Amino acid sequence: MPSAIENDQADFVARLEDDAYFVDIGVYELRPRANLTATQIVGNIERALNNLVKKGGKAGAAVTVLMPTMNVPEANTTGPNCEERITVRVQESPLVNMNPATGTGKSAEDIALYVLQMFHLWASGTGTWVADTDALTPSVEFDPKVTYDVSFRRLVKLQTRAKAAQPLITPDTGTTPRVVTIAAAAGAAIYYTLDGTLPTAATGTLYTAPITVEDAATLRAVAIETGKAASNVAWAKYADAAGDFSSDFAPDFAGQG
Prior knowledge:
single chain, alpha+beta, STM4215-like, 7-stranded mixed beta sheet, 5-stranded mixed beta sheet, 4 helices, elongated, disordered C terminus
């Protein structure tokens, strides 16, 4: 089943294809799939711009809906709250497009402005799209083609996924040898490593009883609970009897969180 942002991209494509203004302008969706690679999609666009593929008997202009992007304006919001962005790339090959015998006669600028007005304040059923701050941006990347990126955004609040509680390491610093306990919420499994690498169910050691740390080590632990995302990683750092820490992290890397 397609994700919500895949559906948003597809909605833009469908609306463009349904508009009579684009009867002679190729409309493309830049999203690689099993039956069509990115290279093949770009190749199809090139053929449309170079009069090798016609639409409505014309060629020389194309619009491509790029893959959506996400921006998080406020990092500390739950979810998080995002701004989803969709860009419609407008391109023309002037020699083909402005030739009355072959082209659409619609300049990249005209097409870009049409797209801008078409999607600004468009309520798609999943949210309202508005023109981005940099709504119309020319690009020389594809010279000699004339190219404009027309960008839109909408607010999206992602649902917060439940996460297992972070385990607690006691003590979280000191010298070795030392007995260390790790506690987590009831029903959660704890996995740990002693070499500073990220613990997972596949790479960590399952915690079943207090650990005796014999040498300098960086202990990291994670709680895993059915139906929830893995917890934040708890960590602790231990020095040997001479006061030397393990070398996998800087000496001040110690504590929970």
